[in-house]
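Hey everyone, long-time lurker, first post.

I ran two proteins through the pipeline my lab uses and got sequence/structure pairs for each. Pasting them in order. The first:
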Amino acid sequence: MTTVPAPRPVESGSAEILHHEGYDEAIVSPFVPAIRVVSNARLVFISGVTGAPVYHDHPHVPEVFDAVPADIAGQVANAFDHLDLALQAAGARRSDVVNLIRFFTNVGEDQDTVNRHQGQWFGGHIPTSSSVEVVRLATDHRLRLEIQAVAAVPA
């Protein structure tokens, strides 16, 4: 029988990382199976961010997106910069992120680059996450990634 590790506090102290039977610390993974938010945390829900400017007209004006990098490396860097801005506005840190939902237009081609950038960006913190491949993103057909997040900020 596998021993299940005790809950481990997230750096911010507002959540605990939970593992279950089958956990092997030797496996490299960009997500953990569960995070429990403690009662004194404030939840912050962050709308999906992409490589495009966060603030843009609706209906969309295609020319606004002409300056967005075409490659996934440029788009993921922009998306995480935009996530930083939203976290800062909420008084949150990267280590407060408890969940990511990642939408890819080509998961096979882009996931490794995104995982590398995400790992460096979090600097050792690993949130829960889901990755989904979609036909396209609503903002602009040239976008390849959208990231939605939830943070648990100490009260």
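...and the second, right after it:
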Amino acid sequence: MLTFVGLGLYDERSVTVAGRDAIRDADRVFAEFYTSRLVGTDLEALEEYHDTTIEVRDRAGVERDPGPVLDAAETDDVVFLTAGDTMVSTTHTDLRLRAEERGIETRVVHGTTAQTAAGSLTGLQNYRFGKATTLPFEQAHGGDGVPDSVVATIEDNRSRDLHTLVYLDIKVDDPHWDDSDDTYMTADHAAGLLAEEFPETLGVVVARAGSPDPAVVADTLPELATRTFGDPLHLLVIPGDLHPMEEDALDAIAGLP
């Protein structure tokens, strides 16, 4: 059996009760933290909270060499942990399909997602979000500024009066959570990049969703680019035209100018 467990958004306590039960009952526990991170905790605290040993796999160990995970799941109850909701990344879907091809039973224990948290924290209506996109670091896509695909996604959503959730790039080079090797794109940096393509456009920053001190700030992209929003993780939402209730929510929650 291979059970995928989403750990939620922030720290070791963000997991659901069902997820904690699955971890408790597992013979072996694997994890990856390169697609996203729980910035409110570390590996040691996770292991202590769940009273287990967690075997962390890097990108190559999940995507190119998943054999140890699948071999274990053929004979034991194995849990595979990720931040957020475990099936948001196609990497995890691929691993699940490989397991099914080998006749390994799989199941999913969901965790809270950044997308649902962004809607909840901002007051923007969930059904009005269009296609999401990820804004990469400039050096990651080999060019300057914002990739055409990101611009096209935002423009298409705005043309249909939909909000765009912009995930911000993270670079995690050490699977064992060496903070010196981690780089997180900040919302002010992202706003500065997007302001070149969408001047005077409204943006909404969501910082540290799922933590005890999340921040939600609404302003034009050029203004957001001049501010700081504290510790990661950050998200950025580019809204479509606001419903009156959404406008009231952003005014009350995010200081809508």
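Reply from user beta_strand_b:
Welcome! Quick read of the second one: The mean pLDDT is 93. The chain has ten helices and twelve strands.
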